[in-house]
Amino acid sequence: MNDVIGIDGKTIRGSRRGSFLKTTYIVNALADNHNMVLGQVKTEEKSNKITAIPELLDVLALEGNTVTIDAMGRQKAIVEKIVEKRRTTF
Fold it and tell me: How far apart (Å, rounded) are the C-alpha atoms in residues 60 and 88?
């Protein structure tokens, strides 16, 4: 079955309390056809999204599925990992 898996990050509203705390940022993998969250990785800053995406990809089965991601995720290592994961099974 070919599902669309969307990977995107969001800032958790109201997660920053005071000037010394960092905002919580979550990177999600969503199964579009099933309206279901497949996985999440928490990061401390939005700039860490690039490091969080590979962690999230490690726990997903991508074979036969289409993966969508925004421009920030268009890193060579991330694209290579998606291609590799689409070819393998668990």
Answer: 11
For the beta sheet containing 4-11, the strands, ordered from the edge strand earlier in sequence to the opposite edge, are 36-43, 25-31, 4-11, 66-69
Written as six digits, the tokens of 66 are: 């289409």
8-state DSSP, 45? S
Q: How many whole angstroms separate alpha carbon 90 and alpha carbon 86?
A: 11
Q: How far is CA 12 from CA 58, 70, 80, in A?
A: 23, 18, 29
Which of 7, 14, 5 has the alpha carbon at shortest distance from 50? 7
Residues 55/41, Cβ–Cβ less than 8 Å: yes
For residue range 18-57, what is the model confidence (pLDDT) as tens digits?
666 677 788 999 998 888 999 999 886 656 788 889 999 9
Tokens of 23: 């905002």
pLDDT at residue 43, as a whole number: 82
For the chain, the maximum distance between any two Cα atoms, rounded to a whole number of angstroms, is 47
